[in-house]
Specification:
- By secondary structure, this protein is of the alpha+beta class.
- The protein has one domain.
- The protein contains six helices and eight strands, in the order E-E-E-E-E-H-E-E-H-E-H-H-H-H.
- It is globular, with a radius of gyration of 17 Å.
């Protein structure tokens, strides 16, 4: 069977939605990729979310799950549907045809292709969105989150607190030690205590 890996580092892991019926369990020994909370997401009330960010990202091992599809295009469609994006925003490597597409060619060559070859995969796919939060300062990222409306702050806290432990980045490290993060944590604990 042609094994196709879906790479993940954020909400795919705890909120796969439609993707859950198309994948196996998540494994934590994916390729090393530079990721950071460098994209604000309209779907999450402008909370900062994780994306590949070669300029500011921390290089960490991401997760992967094997698709139940053995057709690369179908696997891409599954991921694009879950992400609410176009198929052209899904990066891929096709090990059989020796072709790939990504915003970040050097990362594919340096990390994803060697990893996929080592794992004996037919291909790998991932969400390939550009960073749109233009700041390399964790302090500015925190100020941005503090200025969000209540729903945005809640989404930001939930996303950051639920990201896998091994996805440690400069933004996350700084923000998770802040008074804002502690306040949000207490508010969530209180809210859930009454459920």
């Amino acid at each position: 069977m042609n094994k196709i890996a879906i790479l993940g580092w954020g909400s795919l892991l705890w909120d796969p939605r439609s993707l859950s019926k198309h994948i196996g369990s998540w494994q934590n020994d994916g390729p090393l990729l530079p990721v950071e909370f460098s994209r604000f997401s309209a779907v999450r009330s402008n909370a900062l979310t994780l994306v590949i960010d070669p300029e500011h990202g921390a290089t960490v091992p991401v997760y992967y799950a094997i698709s139940r599809r053995n057709d690369l295009q179908l696997a891409i469609q599954d991921l694009a549907f879950r992400e609410g994006c176009a198929a052209k925003q899904i990066g891929f490597v096709d090990m059989e045809l020796l072709k790939f597409w990504s915003l970040w060619d050097h990362i594919v060559h340096e990390s994803i292709l060697p990893w996929a070859k080592e794992k004996g995969l037919a291909g790998a796919i991932w969400t390939d969105l550009e960073p749109n939060f233009k700041s390399d300062s964790p302090k500015k990222a925190l100020l941005y989150l503090q200025k969000l409306k209540k729903k945005g702050q809640e989404c930001a806290y939930e996303y950051m607190s639920r990201a896998p432990d091994q996805i440690q980045t400069p933004f996350r490290d700084f923000i998770s030690k802040s008074a804002w993060y502690k306040q949000m944590s207490n508010a969530f604990a209180e809210k859930n205590a009454y459920k």
